[in-house]
Amino acid sequence: MAIKSDFCKVEDCEKPRDKSQGSSMCIMHRVRWSRFKSHDLPIKTLPEGIVHICKIHGELTPDEAYKNDNYSSYQCYECKKNAMKKFDEKNPNRDTNILKKNWYIGKGKNKVKVTKEYYEELLQKQDGSCAICGNPETMIRADKKGIKRLAIDHCHKTKIIRGLLCQMCNQALGHMKDSIERLESAIRYLKAHQ
After folding, report:
1. Structure pTM?
2. How far separated are the first and last CA of the chain, in Å rounded?
3. How far is CA 172 from the centre of its chain?
4. Sign of CA dihedral 38, 43, 46, 52
5. DSSP label of 9
6. Do the Cβ atoms of 147 and 138 come closer than 8 Å?
7. Fold of domain 101-192
8. Quick one: which of 69, 65, 70 has its CA closest to 46?
9. Is the predicted pLDDT of residue 71 greater than 50, yes or no?
10. How far apart are CA 170 and CA 187, in angstroms?
11. CATH 3.40.1800.10 residue ranges in the chain?
C-alpha cells in the first residue's frame, strides 16, 4: 500500500513524487516551481490589439502577424518570409509539388482531393495538353521555377473531375460560371461579328 509521502505534496495532485531528485513534488510541479515559483502555470496576457510578440520585431497586431488556419498561434510575417528565403537558398532545386501525395482543389467544404496517379492518368489521356484548346500550358509559376501544371477542372455541384485545362481555358470557364447558355451566346456573338 502506498504511503501519502510517496505522492506529490501539492493539493489535489495524485502523481508520484520525484524520488530521483529527492523532491516532495511530482516532476511537473517541481519544474513549475523552479521556473515560475508557483505550482500553477503563469497566465500570459498580451496588451489589447497585440496578438503576438516577436523576439526580433516586438509586438505585432493582427495585420502584422501571420496566422495559419491549421494552428492557433501567430507568427511574424517578416521572420516567416526570411525563414522561407533562407530555406529556398539552401534548397534551390526543391520542387514542393514532388513532396505532395495529393492535390486539393477548391476551399473549405468544397475541397476535392486528386491523387497524383489520377492526375498523371488524365495527363496521358490528354497527351499533356488542355482538354479544350488542345495546347500545352504556357503560364509560368508564381515562384518563376517553371511552367504551371494543367489545372484540374471539376463540376462545383457534383465535385466530379472533368479534365485538365490550361490556365486561360480554366479561367474562361470560371468567368462564364460553367453556363452552357452563356457559352452558346458567346459563340453566337463571335459568329455574328466575324
Report:
1. 0.52
2. 97
3. 27
4. positive
5. S
6. yes
7. His-Me finger endonuclease fold (3.40.1800)
8. 65
9. yes
10. 17
11. 101-192
